[in-house]
Amino acid sequence: MKIAFIGGGNMASALIGGLIKQGTAAAYIYAIDPIAETRERLEKAFRIVTADAPTGKLADYDAIVLAVKPQTLKEAAEAIRPFIAERQLIISIAAGVRSGDVARWLGGHTRIVRAMPNTPALVGLGVTGLLAAPTVNQDGRELAEQVLEAVGEVVWCNSETEIDSITALSGSGPAYVFYFMEALAKAAQNLGFPADEARRLAVGTFTGAAQLAAQSDEPLSLLRERVTSKGGTTAAAIASFMESGIAEAIVKGTSAARDRAFEMGEEFGRS
């Protein structure tokens, strides 16, 4: 498996590191980025070959990962357009941008998988939504899985709408968790703990609870109820959360994120 990356930012670095850790030879990975400092960082960290612009060398790779921001995806796709082969799989990790628009920018190339990884991929614990264009065969799907499973789990989607929903859930979800951690750390400080200890308490609590949930097949509601003794301290907190409508706010916020993912597809796909 030979993989080329367009863009060398954090997510590209995570994928490259994950692939090498899983056994892909550094000689089979190639990265293109216009920023010299980024190329130097990748070369030093992973001992891969890099370049500042696409060339015919791209045709040597089985898959090309478009690891750029949504607002620069069109430019990146058009830049590689003269150098790609029909057999190659294109994986786009730009949020919101639909596969049909990527295909148009690539001059009609349709062997495309849209991917939505999240930031825990940086530590190998990501969850990535994948959506294959109709022309992608089983070999292409397996190749996409192999690339993205280098940084965690993958979930296949059946439509652009579904991957927009994945974007709102697991793509944006880590920020929701960090937001809750911030609030819990602030609560700890209000109770008299110093900032560093408050942070450690908040992060440790979330990490432990997440591991407990991951290792259990029981409903999340049951795990919560087991900590919530009638008339106890946890029950008092949960009652306050419910009175404040926190669960409803999470649902509403996630819907807003899904709607924004759709809007981004409309916005960036117009050109």
What name is given to the CATH topology of the largest domain? Rossmann fold
- Oligomeric form: single chain
Low-confidence stretches: none
The CATH architecture of the largest domain would be 3-Layer(aba) Sandwich
Main beta-sheet strand count, sense and barrel state:
8 strands, mixed
First CA to last CA: what distance?
Answer: 33 Å
> What is the H level of CATH, i.e. the homologous superfamily of the largest domain?
NAD(P)-binding Rossmann-like Domain
Query: Whole-number radius of gyration?
Result: 21 Å
Percent of sequence in beta strands = 5-15%
The strands making up the biggest β-sheet line up spatially as: 3-2-1-4-5-6-7-8
CATH class category name of the largest domain: Alpha Beta
Computed structural class: alpha/beta
Order of helices and strands: EHEHEEHEHEEHEHHHHHH
What is the number of beta strands?
8
How many helices? The count is 11
Features:
alpha/beta, 271 residues
Word description of this protein:
- This protein folds into two domains: 3-166, NAD(P)-binding Rossmann-like Domain (Rossmann fold, 3-Layer(aba) Sandwich); 173-261, ProC C-terminal domain-like (ProC C-terminal domain-like fold, Orthogonal Bundle).
- 54% of the residues lie in helices and 13% in strands.
- It contains eleven helices and eight strands.
- The radius of gyration is 21 Å and the shape is elongated.
